[in-house]
Amino acid sequence: MFEGCTIKYIKDTLTDENQSIMVTYPANENGISKAMSVPLDENNTDYQNILAWVAEGNTIAEAD
Amino acid sequence: MALSKIDVANMLTGVTPVANGGTAATTLAGAGLAKRPNAKPIIINGDMAVAQRGTSFTGVSSGSNFPVDRFEFYPTNLGTYTIIQEALTSGEAYNNGFRTALRIDTTTADASPASTDYAILRTKFEGQDLQMIKKGTANAEKLTLAFWVKSNKTTTGQVNLFDIDNNRLVSGTYTISSANTWEKKVINFPADTTGAFDDNNALSLIVEFFLDGGSNFTSGTAPTSWETQSNGDRNANNFAIGSSTDNDFAITGVQLEVGEYTSSTLSPFQHESYGDNLARCQRYYYFHVSETINNDYDTTICLTSQYNSSSMKGYIHLPTQMRTTPTLNQNTGTNMYRVYESNSNATMTSISLTNESTFNTAVVNHGSSISVTQGSCGNLQTMDGTAFVAFNAEL
Questions:
Q1: Of A13, A34, A44, the CB nearest to B311
Q2: What is the ipTM of this complex?
Q3: Which residues neighbour B86 within 8 Å (Cβ) at sequence distance 6 or greater?
Q4: Fewer C-beta within 10 Å: chain B N or C terminus?
Q5: What pTM, to 2 d.p., does this model score?
């Protein structure tokens, strides 16, 4: 589902807490990527998919 | 001759008065009428009129794809397809009031799929919207699914009701009699006294048109009674859309009714206004802005407030309460977005949701570093021609 994607936490610069997860798909020839900013909400289907991906042994990259 | 009495109590209980001195009570169903327990169509966008993501997608070979809202085409390692919202200009579906259809054309065939491969067209439902079915009780209702379908293939296909809450399945089949001709199909499903739908905003039911699949999905028999779900039963009647590049499948007028009806007793499709239909779709997906729908001009996403020289926040009030806090979908890249303030730009590659976001309001900030003026307000805009912002709360 997330083949080739970068999946990384994004921090709120004011609170220094993780605010969402950025899923970025591979860029096209023009350097443009589709991306999802996924809320940390367990009712959100994309977040559920990320948690399933983590359960398979993958890791969400820490925020910069 | 005295006219029969019109009794309000009878109207409320679904019994119609008998005309001209008759004695037998006539039910609404017996009179060919339906007393819908739901005010709105259960299936959203069954006429395929709303297509917020676009109307044509080529090279579709994997993942979740929505050629129209609420209807997801999901192929996995089984062929490549063009999927479109097709404008209808003739034919029986057109003659019955449908102006759009969802169409799938096979562009790369896979006539020998691996056992785990599949291609499904489906629409999904929240459990809280299905409580009138009374599933899992002694009063569970039968269901009727109707739709218009057209294909080059004269074959039998399978459509499943998949109860996710209780892992239960029931199936119906339909046969396309004439190639390239719109045909209306009506399928009855039995009631299920086992397994209630959860009364919440999570996924409870999938209506699944199984269009192709490998042996893991074709090895069984289509269940005509509710059963514990078995993958081998989900595509026992393989439509095999991916088997040839000659193949296509088009569908519209998808209608799910509580109760058992025939083609002659089924109540008419409930056509909604485009606005009502769009608003119901927006609970699951909301296309906010793009440059392409604004003649390639930079387009306002929202106003922002600048908390300090490196932080801003913008607030987007969603047009309807979404199913859950949505994902923000976008394109990212150099100079994709900007905050315009004090006659200068602060450019950004992406936008990020903050944890203040809810199902009513998206609160966004910069997904990358930014330099702004503390205390200013600004205008968050698209900057690149490919920029867009949409919100996704699909099941």
A1: A13
A2: 0.98
A3: B100, B101, B102, B103, B250
A4: N
A5: 0.92
